[in-house]
Task: structure prediction
Amino acid sequence: MVSNENEDRKITTNELLANYSHAIQSGLDNGTAYIKSFNVLNETQDTQELLSAAVKLTSFQLDTDFVTFPHKFSDEDIQLVFLERLLTLSGIENELVISNPEHVQKLLCKFSELGDKTFTFSRSSKNPDGFFFGPTMMNRPLFYVNLKAKELMFHGSSLIEYFVVDLEGIKTDEIKSALQVMVKAAQILKESFGFKIDFNVLDSVNGEFYAFASGDLPDSIMDELFVKSAENHFILMSAQNGGASLTLDDKTEVTVYDAGDASRPKWGATIHDQDQKESWLCLLLDYPFIKEWYLRNQKQLEILSNQFIFG
Result:
């Protein structure tokens, strides 16, 4: 009977040591590749290289079976470093800064206008390449970003809950300044890299239709807006499709109307202003009576975001 030489053959000491050496070297080479991309993330002056490095570093498996690195930045940290460097390279400096650079792992950042309030990224449970950005101490996903898929989506309800409700009492100009940093970042991603952006309640383009969650809108809600407008010396005028139009300061015009039909109503609102700066969120900040009306009827008036991402 012929023995199976491959099964019976034992590895030699020399081969064992060679395999060990190869495994160590492979682990070190993997670390070198990581450092190369990390240095690009930290040092490049080219935004295209910056994005490529961030994509490579996200989900990078740095540790191997034979080489592990006890101190390393998380994928969430990579997103934050990318965001801060993107703003800096685009000429937007010191408006969003990493607040704890002395710590390796779990970086936090601050907006210059919001004091000590910190923000960070957290990974999406639905997509390992997707991350939510929000305040550290609250479950408020302000926006979702996927650098690999080139998409960023703002979450309307969380933005309103945080900046309108949670930060009540802070000066409107300071809140708007922080909001503008996020808008600028999204605009850079759209214009420089072709990202798909959903600005949601931060979209200030004239005529953007903010669809209400309820679809239909009870007369009582429109009646309430009429009363609150009159109490604040503004006149709500009848408009198309049973809707109403409200002219505010600086000729800013808000129109609430049904963009659907009798079988499928689709109530919502549009804003027109000369400089195209007034988004739905800014409207709530600028006019307390509209904010009160919205919050009292939030279930019906909520501006929906992507339900798969934020649901």
In short: The chain has three domains: 13-70, 78-200, 210-304. The mean pLDDT is 94.
